[in-house]
Amino acid sequence: FGRFLLKLKTIHFRIIILMRQMANGYKPSQIFKNFRRNIVDTITMRQASDYVEKQVTIHAWVTNKRSSGKIAFLHLRDGHEYFQGVVLKNQVGEETFELVKHLGQETSVELTGIIQTDDRSSLGYELLVESIKVIGESNDYPITPKEHGTDFLMDHRHLWLRSSKQHAIMQIRN
Question: Distances from the Cα of 116 to the Cαs of 76, 101, 109, in angstroms?
């Protein structure tokens, strides 16, 4: 049912785009070419095995990031799995690379890229990012990768549940 809703949402957005193009005076042949060119499946990382070497869109939260020179690694969570997004400066451009370097923890993003196999990953796949869109910024997220006391974590329990350890405990309980 979840896949059906994702497909329905994607089709809804495509229809809106088509209507805007028609209102702007595009010819039907131009609209059809643009429509076919922009079809990208929206998936979760659990479905990555079905989309190896294909372009996809994934909605996720940034859990951590690191970069060095011309490459950045985003540690991401899509609600089901933790995975890695690789951003190459020469593929995304200077502006997008700067955006990636300044993403905050728990920022909500929409990533478009190619699914690649990676034996080092616990999931077996990673996303080679081609474009990124910030959906919602997260400023001053109180729980950082550093150690916190029990009292602080209990006061922010709704946020603590987003950590990988607490996420794993909840999966075992379910």
Answer: 15, 22, 19
